[in-house]
Design goal:
The complex is a heterodimer of chains A (about 300) and B (about 290).
Chain A (H helix, E strand, L loop, with lengths): L7 H27 L19 H7 L2 H34 L4 H8 L1 H4 L2 H11 L6 H8 L12 H30 L3 H8 L4 H26 L4 H8 L11 H11 L3 H33 L4
Chain B lengths: L1 H39 L3 H5 L12 H7 L9 H32 L5 H13 L2 H15 L5 H26 L2 H9 L4 H30 L4 H4 L8 H4 L11 H35 L2
The chains are: A mainly alpha (about 300), B mainly alpha (about 290).
């Protein structure tokens, strides 16, 4: 009798559901609750005081928060687009290589194995204004001044983006390359016979075929866009004077340094929603691209 | 004749451009990593030298200091390495077992709201580590598992399960249903059919999922930096910060630890790199 109650698929899924519920869902519900309280780590009793949407009103009217939010969206837009373009370029170049392709592909995978914290540290070292590789090279070539790569606001943002792009472009390149390998040759040859220019055959044959692969890469990337936190945290810590402050560094500062957990959790929810929107958007694009190519099912 | 010549020139120029572009790309990818390796073997005086010294000398000073333990201003690297290894391997094994059963459920059974479950699971993976670390810190502190291996392992299992499900689902789907149906007709139970027939076929996919899970745990920082406090549980990414003092950074030592961190990841990835790409694309395109 009781054996019929739980279907097999549910039993198989149960461990996954339990773990995620215990480690992600319950803490998230807790943080949702605490975002409606003035909870401070230093004063545990504040957890039981309900203040309604006070925290949300506070962050929504906070210029610093909006600056960090805008910077995060801008950062993600620039970085994701550049990664896609560069990745596409690299994949097209690699596809034309006639020998040594395996070795090149292996090299291409290097950055994927680096810990984001390692990438941050590595570029903090390279962009160091005093002993960094970049400034040393510039000075050896005769430039007199030491460029303040991580001290000047704009240059620091550039350095962080460079690090982020260095780390994640290979995800795009490798997946798009896999798409190019899987592509049938006949349509391209037919297009050539019919007199298409290389650009036309790229635009109307290659690119549509690559779209699902591009969206897979985007989906995978959108799952961990917040890894940029590690990079920013170690390269500049959100400084100088908050000019590289992203949503995530602002949140961890509010939570851990100022110990204002309630407020930090409210920011956390904004960032979670942002991440989830990104992911849903690319998931839908992925399904649409699949359906178009008849790969669904 | 003239047209032929210009055509040939153009092709030559394109070839040169292609080569230069490829060369530059590879340089940009390789130099930062090589620079770290190189500097882990240079004496600190030379790293800090102004004007820069371009001909490197060789020393094992940083490695010696690192492995000497906490005594001589070194960092307890062995403990960090051990912690990283314990946490990553255990969480990967558990995540694979749980994720594989979940992936199998998605690939082989039809049930209501399947897509909903699937997307829902993936969304949990999208929760930023920093945002999750705030409540997790409090909950783990209440449960008394902060600063322990167990806490970190739990967190990483939950982080890796959704992606593992995604990958293994893609692999199990590629295996024709007839395979396990035939096995069942021949008298296997569903369980036996899975382990003796389907699992061996999907093994490479499971391996690639395992590598991804391992790399994620091995490299994770945002959660580890809050959930660990002492030498007994700090992992290497967190240990990297031990080399930063208030105003100075021990660059050479940091480089040495960085090398130690990247070597296991490199070796693992080389072993399964072929499956890695196949895993990602099949999981996504045919999913």
């Amino acid at each position: 009798m009781t054996r019929r109650r739980l279907p097999e698929w549910f039993v198989l899924l149960l461990p996954a559901i339990i773990v995620i519920a215990a480690v992600v869902l319950i803490p998230l519900l807790f943080s949702l609750y605490s975002s409606f309280t003035p909870y401070k780590l230093t004063r545990p009793s504040t957890l039981w005081k309900w203040v309604g949407t006070y925290n949300y009103e506070k962050i929504l009217s906070d210029a610093k928060f909006w600056a960090a939010f805008g910077r995060t969206v801008l950062f993600l837009t620039i970085v994701l687009n550049l990664e896609l373009l560069l990745g596409l370029g690299i994949a097209l170049m690699m596809n034309k290589v006639t020998w040594g392709q395996r070795t090149l592909r292996t090299i291409l995978m290097f950055p994927m194995m680096f810990s984001p914290i390692l990438v941050g540290f590595q570029f903090k070292f390279i962009f160091n204004d005093n002993i960094g590789l970049v400034n040393n090279v510039l000075q050896s070539m005769g430039f007199d001044a030491a460029l303040p790569w991580l001290v000047d606001g704009k240059l620091a943002m550039f350095s962080i983006m460079f690090a982020e792009i260095w780390m994640s472009t290979s995800v795009f390149a490798i997946l798009i390359l896999a798409g190019l390998f899987a592509m049938p040759r006949d349509p391209l040859e037919a297009a050539k016979v019919d007199g298409c220019t290389p650009w036309q055959s790229f635009r109307h044959i290659t690119l549509p075929f690559l779209m699902p692969f591009i969206y897979i890469a985007m989906t995978i990337r959108s799952l961990d866009v917040a890894r940029a936190y590690d990079i920013v945290q170690i390269m500049t810590g959100g400084g100088p004077a908050r000019r590289t402050e992203l949503l995530w560094t602002l949140m961890s500062r509010t939570g851990y340094v100022d110990a204002r957990m309630g407020l930090a959790n409210a920011m956390g929810y904004v960032s979670i929603i942002l991440s989830i929107l990104f992911t849903i958007y690319f998931f839908r694009k992925l399904s649409a691209a699949r359906a178009e190519l008849g790969m669904a099912g | 004749m003239d047209r032929n010549q210009s055509h040939r020139n153009r092709r030559r120029a394109l070839k040169a451009l292609h080569f230069t572009g490829l060369f530059l790309t590879m340089m940009i990818i390789c130099i930062p990593g090589l620079w770290i390796v190189l500097n882990s073997f240079r004496p600190t005086v030379e790293i800090m030298a102004k004007p820069a010294i371009w001909v490197p000398s060789f020393t094992l000073e940083h490695y010696r200091a690192m492995f000497a333990g906490a005594g001589e201003g070194g960092v307890p690297v062995f403990s960090y390495f051990r912690n990283s290894l314990i946490v990553s391997v255990t969480s990967t094994l558990i995540a694979i077992l749980i994720g594989m059963s979940g992936g199998y459920a998605f690939a082989r059974y039809r049930f209501k709201g399947k897509n909903g479950y699937f997307v829902g699971l993936m969304l949990f993976r999208a929760v930023p580590g920093v945002a999750l670390s705030l409540p997790l810190f409090i909950v783990f502190a209440k449960a008394g598992i902060i600063d322990t291996h167990l806490g970190l392992i739990l967190a990483y299992v939950a982080m890796n399960v959704p992606f593992t499900i995604w990958l293994t689902d893609g692999f199990f789907r590629q295996i024709p249903r007839e395979l396990h149906e035939a096995a069942e007709i021949d008298g296997c139970t569903r369980w036996q059919a899975f382990w003796k027939v389907e699992f061996p076929v999907a093994r490479s996919g499971v391996a690639s999922a395992a590598i991804f899970a391992f790399l994620t745990s091995w490299n994770e920082f945002a959660l580890a930096s809050q959930l660990t406090r002492s030498v007994g549980s700090k992992t290497m990414p967190v240990g990297l910060l031990d080399f930063t003092a208030e105003f100075t950074i021990n660059w050479g030592g940091m480089c040495a630890l960085a090398v130690l961190m990247i070597v296991p990841a490199l070796i693992l990835t080389f072993i399964v790199q072929k499956h890695l790409i196949a895993g990602l694309t099949f999981g996504g395109v045919k999913g």
